[in-house]
Amino acid sequence: MDQKHHPLNAPAAALAVALLVTGCSSPSTRPSETPPAASPVPASPGAPPGAPPEAPPPPARPQAPPREIHLSPAERSLVMQAHTLLARGDIDAASATLDRALRIEPSNPLLWIELGRVRLAERDAHQAEVCARKALLLATGDHAAQAQAGRLLAEALRAQGRNQEAQELDSRPYMH
Fold first, then answer.
1. Looking at residue 108, which CATH number applies to its domain?
2. What is the pLDDT of residue 45?
């Protein structure tokens, strides 16, 4: 059989014709060619001609859902015990009890708030401020815990005569 009429040549011929008709070509492998540049981001409508293009806004960061911080049953028991001791005037025992609770969960802002209240009862406003600031940092996402920590901090600042700072703190969003 001669090659001119061989059935395998028909598909190859059809493909060649299709490529010629549609204008498809194989991609160039020459290294000197560079891909076409992306179209530039247009400048904002009110920008003067020739102004640099406006950058797209950053993607919106998803809001973290609010959280509620709680005391575990053991922590709750120790806090109640500390309240009882404080009511009896045994500040040292109340402080030691809250220290035990903090060993259970040192990242719980509610425990730092309780310890700060004991420090205020001891008339140690500076240490109450330290506890309140620690609680405020740990309370991120819990509006109620932030407000409690903020009130404690404001009270500690006022006890130190820092009324202006306490007043500025009262205007923060988490205080309302």
1. 1.25.40.10
2. 59
